[in-house]
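Bug #77: duplicate submission created two jobs. Keeping one. Sequence:
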Amino acid sequence: MFKKILIANRGEIACRVIKSARKMGIATVAVYSDADRNALHVKMADEAVHIGPAPANQSYIVIDRIMEAVRQTGAEAVHPGYGFLSENRKFAAALEAEGVVFIGPPSGAIEAMGDKITSKKIAQEAGVSTVPGYMGIIEDAEEAVKISQQVGYPVMIKASAGGGGKGMRIAWNDAEAREGFQSSKNEAAASFGDDRIFIEKFVTQPRHIEIQVLADTLGNTVYLHERECSIQRRNQKVIEEAPSPFLDAATRRAMGEQACALARAVGYASAGTVEFIVDGARNFYFLEMNTRLQVEHPVTELITGIDIVEQMIRVAAGKPLPFKQSDLKINGWAMESRLYAEDPYRGFLPSIGRLTRYRPPVEGETVGGGIVRNDTGVYEGGEISMYYDPMIAKLCTWAPTRDAAIEEMRLALDTFEVEGIGHNLPFVGAVMDHPRFVSGDISTAFIAEEYPDGFLGATLAPVLTRRIAAATAAMNRVAEIRRTRISGTLGNHERLVGDDWVVTLQGSEYTTRIDADREGSTVRFADGGALRVTSDWVPGQPLARLMVDGTPLVLKVGKIPSGFRIRARGADLKVHVRTPRQAELAKLMPEKLPPDTSRFLLCPMPGLIVNIAVKEGQEVQEGQALATVEAMKMENILRAERKGVVKKISAKAGSSLKVDDVIMEFE
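Kept job's structure:
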């Protein structure tokens, strides 16, 4: 077995590989750019080597810099993680020439399957059903339009070397094909150093289901069942689960056997993933093969009990797989929520800055008999950089059933504290409560269909708002007792605090009366109902763990005048707890309206202006492209919300802007 390996990656996946290597008694080497000098993976590794400036194309994807770090440290093998150089045949070949083991498939398999155009041709030759499309190289936008017309709209424009949703656009007409081609080409060049583009038919209402394969160098190939990855935004996976709620045993077996056959056809060894799109009749079509470790591998590990990273290392060392296909059973259900530094209230645009608070839920067994796992690469006080993928962590839960795994995820998300940046915790929390997701009736169009106007916050069901009303009424009583003690008032403090309170939240008003005792409070409602609330929460704690009628409730708590800011289940609520007289007077107060910014185009995220598409004095139409902003390796086109005339342009190509900086003003 290897004594020392180098991880040619960063962030959570570098930390993940280090954990398995440490368990196996293998020393680890981290590499880092200027932006990652204080990153978690650098702190975790036994050694660390600086490899260059912050941009990935000057550090993490520069083969010579990685090779120098290998020579400097004497690492015997390299694990590439995912992204960056993980599917780069030249990198694998460079390691081989140096006598260093690549912890991944042979370079020939990477070349055959890592390139999406080549892999589709091989799949077709192997008799695998593939999506119709054009597999040749597309030279320019006009050729892209012509091909799109031939294939038939809608089409998917994709980077041949792409992954992670980068370099991908859906086009429904000629204009979108022309625009999408250029954006995909630019993103592909920036992210992968390869700007080749191909086009295929976009299958509407598909499910994205993938098969995890493992193969050793001795001819053994198995599949570790499937993952459902249909909850996607901009072709980037957000929530994954294993197994799929849609597949039956026969389809699962057919997909698994086909995936293994494809792996054998290219002499595959190591971990890999064969991705399929599946229609409503369970017909499946080969999409691509990822010749690397997938981001969502933890859910497979949770339902199989197999450490995939460990097996990758063992296979690279020439060891056989220690199990057969018949040994691989599905145990329970696992969920994964990807925590991104993206602000859901701003159209999921990237957010950067310092993590002023980062407190993930405790990993391990839960009170409910489930498991919580959090794969992360950040820490409280660390910086989220604009140079890399915006993923912060992967929160996973396991339970015996799908419903139980979802409930474990709800509690874990409510427990996860992140402050200082915009993030998508509220959104994934809302999805976990969405009836369509809970039923398993999902497709890759789920987010576009259920949130067509973007995410504006969750609206909680009345049964949940009632529970929150009871909880905050009881919490307010605790806060009021603390306040009277601090003020120095003499006498029986609890008698100074009234029993009658009016709680308002999400447009509803609850008149309550609190009967308190040493163990907790019984909150009685005007309609005759009552809820028992117990908790050890004290004022000032940002997280309240309560039991409401014997059921757990976790609330993120902030103080506002006459109440609390409460965040739970994807909702961000102002909860006012007032005396009956205060509530009566509050209804007479005028509502404060936000300022009107409709005449301005504001920068929605910290980023770089790539281009300004209009001029001062120009009339623009609704939907017309105004400017392009690049952040976290993604290009974002800003469009006119309505017809107007450009009065003044305040930014230019190359400008670095902050959130809400003015780009242009309209008459």
